[in-house]
Amino acid sequence: MRWDGQQLGTEEPSALPGLAKLNNLVRSVQTPEFAGVTFHEVLAKSALNRVPRQSQMPFGWTINPYRGCSHACVYCLHPDTLILMADGRQKPLKSVAVGDKIMGTRTIGGSRRYVPTTVLASWTTVKRAYRITLADATEIVASGDHRFLTERGWKYVKRADDGTQRPYLTLNNKLVGFGLHGLTAATKNPVDDPAYRRGYLTGMVRGDGVLLRRSYQRPNGQPNNVSMFRLALADEEALSRTRNYLELEGIATRLRPFRVPAHRRPMNAIHTSRADHYDRLSKIVAWPEHPDAAWYAGYLGGIFDAEGSCTRGILRISNTDSEIHGTTKQAMTELGIRYVHEPGSAQGVSSIRIVGGPAMRSKFLALASPAITRKLDLVGRAVKSDPKLQIVAIDDLGEHIDMIDITTGTGDFIANGVVSHNCFARPTHTYLDFNAGADFDNQVVVKINVADVLATELAKPSWGQFPVALGTNTDPYQRAEGRYALMPGIIQALARSGTPLSILTKGTLLRRDLPLLAEVAQTVPVDLAMSIAIYDDELQKSIEPGTPSAKARLATVTAVREMGLDCSVFLMPILPYLTDTKAHLDEALRRVKEAGGTSVLFTSLYLKPGVKPWFMHWLERQHPELVPKYTLLYARGQYAPKEYRTWLAARISPLIRAHGLQRGREDPSTGGIRSKALGMLRNDAGDRVAFGSDDGSTGARILPATEQPMLF
Predict the structure, then answer these.
(1) Residue 484 · residue 70 · CB < 8 Å
(2) Partner of 417 at 20 to 30 A CA spacing, among 222, 285, 300, 388?
């Protein structure tokens, strides 16, 4: 997140009740990245918040590093945008998941270079679409607020609608990167095509295999024919692909170690001595009379895995066989890959070198799909701008479409071959934000000193190491956390004082702090929970536009479990007539269990005053047939009637038990730190507070209306 367009001032703090009176405002920050949002950086006088006893919440203390929660991320790209992965291959944005390793950039030694980074968050939203067309025919569809790196710095797709001054793209601006040169997400990956398979085997066997047949006389004078195929490789990826392809052709091989000198990398070999295998393989690797594009692509993939190399980002295929080189050049010509034939050495080895920079390199890798990852390395290479990346058109497509954005560790990524700006990790889009009212949708208070204040409070002799819950008011992993990074200091302060802690979030940025949480869980109880209310993708996009998808949040649950920690899932709120069907609940619980979730807690929809009008407006627009039912259901107040909540518990509790997700039944063999921070606790007065039955018989007991948790 670059705040180079920020504005400072204190002209708006009066919008926040009590802020001006506290006299603790450091500055107010407005930035184009958060259109309409002001971040008020304050010096907090306290960090720990005591929960009123009458609230009946299952914890006595909370910490809220942020007050308010910003909505509506402005960045986004078309789902078919190709993303450069860390291994040098490209994958459509819609297929990129949280935790994937992709390529970003970082300034090293005065120049921007490619470096691997991790996807920290991913989410969908709906934005007006703009198409940027480059001179090399690369097209990028993005929102008007997305930013790309030009030779003159970062620029937005279009000027700001509200008149805010910000740099934006114009014709002839030159983007930084390598472009696509005609490659698109629609380009078919041919690795499963039979023609590609046979082309790959031809390149691999002719390049590095041994295929021979000999005849000799036995001592008794009878003739004997020996047939043999062998392929020895140090790279298991190519050896495994070749073996699989041979099996699909009816040729089974045996795997064995291959003896090599001690100073060389160990190798394995596949082999067969059957005559019918020899005959079949000989036909497969014979030069075809009329090869198609798939065969050529497979051949290039095979010959590159066999004889290719990558030196300082430059791809070469070296061999002494003129016939192999002739077919290689023909294949590259047919597929539109530029090359030069370098002179041979004294030993007769010459090379076909791919030219055209990263653009041709990426096109070759996308079409040929070689198996060996180590030959694709771009890490450390300088980022340069292809001469044909000038903008020739910027078109408003006149429609709003589904788009996707991601957060990465480097703050950027490579989209359709050009450097694209990263967005903050998406916050919880608290569409039913019970404790952060409308006043704080666009006015977010940031307690920049919260970790230091917390450490001082925890050091007091009066502190009794009571369990502390985060995420009960506003999400601690909302997108502002991507800039301010307050949570690591909070976690460390709690751990040093021996204080149990729990975190509830919808934000996948939680993954950033999992190593730290796993470390502190060795000394204090740590409970983690993800809020995942809706498992129908279309409904989730409609009611929670811009939030991390259920898939992304479930992947975060899996990441938590892989770190050896338990992870509860809050199935809250359940929406009457929309997400309370048995099929939806069963599928939701199945996915939670599959992701590794250790327990599930649930409540029905709660319509707080101020939220109810918004929700009913959405319902009238999206599901008008349900308006009469909701009007009747919530006629008496904010909560669904006791009869509905009792019915819901009777429906979901057996499903929770069937999936093994009842509270208190976590598997101790996982090594997770089991605590009661979100289960049965004693508050600081010693009173037992129940949230989820102690015997694990249900996911959560139905609390009276006055006790309903207001976490969302």
Answers:
(1) no
(2) 300
DSSP class of residue 425 equals: P
Distances (CA, A) of 61 to 55, 68, 458, 502, 530: 12, 18, 12, 11, 19
Torsion angle in degrees (nearest 10) through CA of 393, 398, 401, 403:
30
Structure tokens at 40: 């008020």
Does a cis peptide bond (omega within 30 degrees of 0) precede residue 573?
A: yes
CA 195 to centroid of chain Cα atoms: 33
Distance in angstroms (rounded) separating the CA atoms of residues 547 and 544? 6
The three-state (H, E, C) secondary structure of 302-335, written as one string: HHHHHHEEEECCEEEEEECCHHHHHHHHHHHHHH
pLDDT in tens, 44-86: 888 998 876 544 455 688 888 877 654 343 457 888 898 998 8
Q: Which of the 8 DSSP states describes residue 376?
A: G
The phi, psi pair for 380, rounded to 5°, reads 90, -10
Secondary element (H or E) of residue 654? helix 642-658
For the domain covering 46-62+446-704, report its CATH number.
Answer: 3.80.30.30
Q: Would you give the DSSP letter of residue 375? A: G
Rounded Cα–Cα distance for residues 604 and 649 (Å): 9
- CA–CA separation, 538 and 525 (whole Å): 37
Separation between Cα atoms, residue 460 and residue 450, nearest integer Å: 16
**What span, in angstroms and rounded, lies between the C-alpha atoms of 239 and 236?**
5
Count of CB atoms situated within 10 Å of the CB of 704? 10
pLDDT at residue 432, rounded to an integer: 25
Q: Partners of 530 in the beta sheet?
A: 505, 569
Residue at 301: amino acid letter? G
pLDDT of residue 182: 59
Domain with CATH 3.80.30.30 in the chain: 46-62+446-704
User: Measured between alpha carbons, how far is 300 from 302 in angstroms, rounded to an integer?
Assistant: 5
Residue 284 near residue 195, CB atoms below 8 Å:
no
**CATH architecture of the region 190-376:** Roll (3.10)
Q: Are 158 and 143 in contact (CB under 8 A)?
A: no
C-alpha triplet 477, 480, 483: angle, nearest 5°: 105
pTM for this model (two decimals): 0.48
**Residue that the structure tokens 């390199």 belong to:** 361
Domain boundaries for CATH 2.170.16.10 within the chain: 82-176+385-421
CB 655 within 8 A of CB 582: yes
The identity of residue 645, as a single letter, is: R
Residue 420 φ/ψ, nearest 5 degrees? -115, 145
- By CB atoms closer than 10 A (0-12, 13-18, 19+), residue 345 is exposed
Q: Which part of the chain is CATH 3.10.28.10? A: 190-376
Helix (H, G, I), strand (E, B) or coil at 668: helix
- Residue type for position 360: M
C-alpha to C-alpha distances, 282 to 8, 196, 209, 244, 245, nearest whole angstrom: 74, 17, 12, 17, 14
CA triplet 414, 419, 425: central angle to 5 degrees? Answer: 70
CA distance 426 to 547: 6
- The one-letter amino acid at 104: G
Q: Nearest-5° angle of CA 336, CA 341, CA 343? A: 175
Sign of the alpha-carbon torsion through 694, 697, 700, 702: negative
Residue 84: CB partners within 8 Å, gap ≥ 6?
90, 102, 103, 362, 378, 413, 414, 417
Q: Which residues contact 622 (CB under 8 A, 6 or more apart)?
A: 542, 543
Question: DSSP strand E in 135-193: where?
Answer: 139-142, 147-150, 153-156
The span from the CA of 712 to the CA of 699, in Å, is 18
Ranges of residues in the chain with a pLDDT under 70 are 1-23, 30-37, 52-59, 68-75, 123-125, 161-164, 181-190, 263, 346, 376-377, 386-387, 422-443, 473, 545-547, 608-611, 613-614, 664-712
